[in-house]
Specification:
This protein is of the alpha+beta class and 116 residues long. It has two helices and seven strands, in the order E-E-E-E-H-E-E-E-H.
Length: 116
């Protein structure tokens, strides 16, 4: 399974989102026929109501979860159209990567932040 992760950057900070009580970088399961960039754009439109331009590929990581191999592919986004919209149960924070330790992020999100 491939998970696409969006690393939104603004003013040397990165967006993390809290959904269902957990903080993390925005991510989505890749559809088999999707190109990565289209998947990232679909994620950001669905989650935040923005039209994003993907700047570049940041990197990937592979891990095993419940017997299944997961591939995480991350992309940097620094420009978008629209204002970030949130659901009632959703929060966001703009953090510098050094502040990640103050949030209970998934270990893979922490690894992605180290690539910046």
């Amino acid at each position: 399974m491939v998970i696409l992760v969006a690393v939104l950057k603004k003013d040397n900070k990165v967006l993390i989102a809290k959904k269902n009580g957990k903080w993390g970088l925005p991510g989505i399961k890749k559809y088999i026929m999707d190109e990565d960039i289209l998947g990232i754009q679909r994620l950001l439109m669905a989650e935040f109501g923005i039209e994003a331009s993907v700047d570049k590929y940041l990197g990937s990581a592979t891990f095993e979860y419940k017997g299944e191999v997961m591939i995480i592919k991350s992309y940097i986004i620094s420009s978008w159209l629209g204002t970030i919209l949130l659901d009632n149960d959703q929060e966001i924070a703009w953090i510098v990567k050094e502040d990640a330790r103050y949030y209970r992020l998934h270990p893979l999100d922490k690894e992605i932040l180290k690539l910046l």
